[in-house]
Amino acid sequence: MFKKPIFLIALPVVAIAAAGLFLYVSNHGSRNGPRTDLIYNWFRDQSTLSEYWMSSGVLCGDAPFMFPTNGLVGFIWDDSFRPGHRHSGLDIFSGTAPGVTPIAAAYPGYLTRQPDWVSTVIIRVPQDPLEPARQIWVYYTHMADANGNSFVAPEFPQGTSEVFVEAGTFLGYQGNYSGDPNSPVGVHLHISIVKDDGFGNFLNELDIENTYDPSPYFGMPLNANTNTDTIPFCR
Ligand SMILES: [Zn+2]
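A: This is the predicted complex of the input protein with zinc ion.
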């Protein structure tokens, strides 16, 4: 009598298990369940979580960076939105329409907006306040609507290079630009602290290895490896 080899029976079971794991990870992030579940609930019902609301201009403890906009810290450094993905910054959600909630520079520096940047500026900080021997860059993005109409402040048109700005300088408004008009993101600011290449250029902020843990800069628990269950905030 023909007997099915064991792997033919085992294979579908493995495939189903793998699909289940994939869906779980996609929906819940890899390891940040309690905190990200709160955020996903807030996306459905924005009357929740008011106790975690942060205001623009707040300085937390002795931290050097000012909180740059109004909103809820929804996602933090090293959160994961899909398998293999690692989030390089923090996302601050205003809950307003696009183009309403202002964004201010968290720290002084020299602002550049490359000629093809629709929704983004980057600010060079020659002396990292935490490590004065090194230069860092602070990256701000999603400042446009779904169709790519920019909300970056008119003072900083495309092609702006090395314009000095103080902390608190108006940079633009939170938007929902993703690059794909059919699939905008929720209205927020993404801000990240980007490494220098050692030759005066910023590295690609999409790779988390090119960024710093923002926690000590903002004085908040913004690292998903150590903060799995609380929404960061301070008064
Ligand atoms: Zn982000």
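Residues 47 and 125 are 37 Å apart (CA to CA). The first strand starts at residue 72 and ends at 75.
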